[in-house]
Amino acid sequence: MATVSASQPWSYTLELPRDPRAPGIARTTLQAVLASHRMSELAETATLLTCELVTNAYLHTEGPCSLRMHGSDGNQLRVAVWDTSPVVPPHFGGGTPQRNGTGEAGRGLLLVRMCADSWGSRTYDKRRFGKTLWFELAHPRRAQAAKATYASPVGCTECATLEAVRREAVRSGDTAKGVDATIAVRSHFRDAHLLPRRRTAP
After folding, report:
1. For 37-69, what is each residue's pLDDT tens digit?
2. d(CA 43, CA 195)
């Protein structure tokens, strides 16, 4: 039986009809794929967010959708859901969210934005109609490896953790996260190691 290196990139595509069972089928398929590629640590979050995207396609479009799963270097998962509507939801950058009485609309997509390491949308020209919504999750091993490669010059564990987060943000190309992480590193170092500590009254 042939074996595949865990670090080799892989991709799978699943075509889904417009059916209420589609989110469950997508969840089961993604769980199997992640297990086979030794990325089960991502399964809980990844399946939750995937179900939200597939459910959004079922509720707000009239056609089928497709699920694409891609893993790179055994460390990062990218999930993309294509559907037949060209309209990008407000919570994915498609305009102003509309208020409604229940406040339920778009809540699943907000969950994707909150839990994913990165997310976005893509629309197409006349050769391919519809849109794609996607998200990415980093494998926990990546964060652990980043922490292991950096040691604080003053022996501070929190310094090392914050610096590891900053390096990962820079590596991923996320400018906003990189700026926030840099500010966090500098603020902690200044407050914990540079400023004189206040003496507490006896």
Report:
1. 989 899 999 999 999 999 999 999 999 999 999
2. 43
